[in-house]
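We give its fold:
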Amino acid sequence: MDLESLISAAAANGASDLHLESRMPPALRVRGALKVGTDPLPAQAITDMARLLIGEEQWPYFLERRSYDLSRTIKGVRCRINILYTSRGVGMAIRLLASFQATVEKLNLHPDLKKFTKHNNGLVLVCGPTGSGKSSTLAALIQEINLADARHIITVESPIEYSFRPRRSYIRQREVGRDTPSFEQALLDSLREDPDVLMVGEMRDPETMRLTLSAAETGHLVLATVHSATCAEALQRVIGSFPAEIQGAISAQVADCLVGVISQRLRFRQDLNMRVPECEILLATHAVKNFIRTREFFKISTALETGADNDMWTFQRYAKWLDGRTQWFVPGQSPEPPDSEMPDIAPSPLPPPVAVKPGRSVAVPKAPSASKPEGRLEIEAVEGGLEDILKNLK
């Protein structure tokens, strides 16, 4: 069985993840539960799949590093793939992403989350355990900005999971390892690229966190993800990642630029036969900022409990809202427009320099009109037939 057949079978069974391992049967994660097959896959077949995905040029890099991250659209399903070495040989962990363009409504999130996209600067953190839908929520927030405002958005991801089609915003997506060597370099570059919004796929180390905080302080809206179970833990993890002697300064920096924190987990609903996000939403009120400055993170839970009037949500209040909700978006029931997803984008080689002799002019192609629809190449209609066109060229 080839990779396309395995992906198709996983999608048909409503799986969120597909796990492949040499000499082991494939395993699917369906609605949070792991289901293991019966027929083991040959080691050579897994290796061939991995080599085809990675490509011959990058294969030596994989052999040296023993892991590789990438994203692909396979049989119409957008996949985030981690290829790794194990004791048995080559294995793959494949996340099957949503086949629709994520928005707050389509992810069945609370409309209050749209308020985060109205800010012009500051830091918005999306946190949760692995597999809780952080990337989807982040993509939904970016798409809300894309549909509503004309802003310059730069995303830094490893790998790119959701491909955005620019609507009102101008979007640049950069993949670590392909378009930029690291998160740090991409963030340094972005400050010289006139961004309005920055999206950081994951804050993994103190240097990335430092640059992310600097970007949020200097007049940009920054959205990023952190692995943690609650909003308080997310803030504690960010500040605790720095050396003890500078944690006081970092705490003040976080308090000054924080807009809010979204913590989420997935909850299975029997009536819908799918999982929906259940959120904890923290806003940066004066009291919350003071708790961050003094590093009294244990008091943040109290601020959440008493912050209903400030549009804060605990997991318990959010669960009650979910139980009372009547309108749901169920994937597959509503038709998607044909351009809701963009194809995989490969980096284009730079054109060779053009030698120009002194005294000669070079024709510069005109920029496309701003009134034309995005993503299309328009050709002006010319009156008359071929003979009229040839006469005009004489």
